[in-house]
């Protein structure tokens, strides 16, 4: 569906892969529906047909009138002095009103269907947490999390509880025909019944900041047997090299939007030079931070990085503009994943 463009390590972007791009139908719609909400397409095509009908009707009447009644001489009298036609005005008011009310009722019924989950979906409840600019997913009866990718079983209704940790976002899956705003300070829910296996797009559909366009996630709809293998939790850290590779993958998912690895300025400080290698040991750099309103100099080490991930406001980098910027906290990020990120930071010192 999408591929990672990594030509510039400072910016990790999702871009369309032409080899896997979805085929649009004659009306510009995405591929055949992958969930239960067929009424969304029905309402779309009904609205489309109404617009085309009235466009052709109105333009046709205008063109006919222009050709038949255009002034042929300067002093030609008006074809009619009629100023209004009450029956006609009633007709062109009542008919559009009826059509609009049909659209409203149709859309309202579909909206209610989409927002109120059946019992089967509520028993299969996931959580999607939106933050600038990534998605975090929690699974039913499972302590593990995944970032910017989620796996759900096919042909089984699912419900997502939606939460924002900062600003307004939106949970938008075109192929499932669902969209729901994710509002700060309020839990929202949405559900659907995935009917087909495959990879599907999840976008944020509300402008949420500079990197809004890169707030993208993949939804994997898989067989139950595949889901039972917990593909979202295939973390490898048996060796430092494996831990660094896992950490690099996680960096691309949740850290790359704010931190570069090549020194390029970004929202947060670059990871380049966080550690240097002296023999077989990795030594952290000296850094000036602000803690409790006072500046102090610290040495970067595992404890400092862990604290910065879990409580980023505890010791803020004193350098401008980072001291003014806010970082999203990850207080529930697993220890093994924090260690993987640290190992990746250290591995950057090897690439010289």
Task: List its salient traits.
Immunoglobulin-like; three-stranded mixed β-sheet; 25% strand
CATH class of the domain at 119-233: Mainly Beta
Instruction: Estimate what percentage of residues fall within beta strands.
Output: 25-35%
What do the pLDDT scores average to?
A: 83
Major sheet size, sense and barrel closure: 5 strands, mixed
Per CATH, the superfamily of the domain at 119-233 is Cupredoxins -  blue copper proteins
Secondary structure layout:
Elements: E1 2-5, E2 13-16, H1 38-69, H2 86-115, H3 119-122, E3 125-131, E4 134-139, E5 142-147, E6 149-153, E7 158-164, E8 169-173, E9 178-182, E10 188-192, E11 198-203, E12 216-222, H4 224-227, H5 240-254, E13 275-278, E14 281-284, E15 286-291, E16 294-299, H6 302-310, E17 316-317, H7 335-347
Parallel strand pairs: 3-7, 6-12
Antiparallel strand pairs: 1-2, 3-4, 4-5, 7-10, 8-9, 11-12, 13-14, 15-16, 15-17
Q: Would you write up a description of this structure?
A:
By secondary structure, the chain is an alpha+beta fold. Among the domains are: 119-233, Cupredoxins -  blue copper proteins (Immunoglobulin-like, Sandwich), CATH 2.60.40.420; 240-347, Cytochrome Bc1 Complex, Chain D, domain 2. The chain is 30% helix and 25% strand. The protein has 7 helices and 17 strands. The chain has helices at 38-69, 86-115, 119-122, 224-227, 240-254, 302-310, 335-347, and strands at residues 2-5, 13-16, 125-131, 134-139, 142-147, 149-153, 158-164, 169-173, 178-182, 188-192, 198-203, 216-222, 275-278, 281-284, 286-291, 294-299, 316-317. The strands form 6 sheets. It has a 5-stranded mixed β-sheet. Strand 1 (2-5) and strand 2 (13-16) form a beta hairpin. It is elongated. The protein starts with a strand and ends in a 5-residue tail after the last helix. Mean pLDDT is 83; it is low at 1-19.
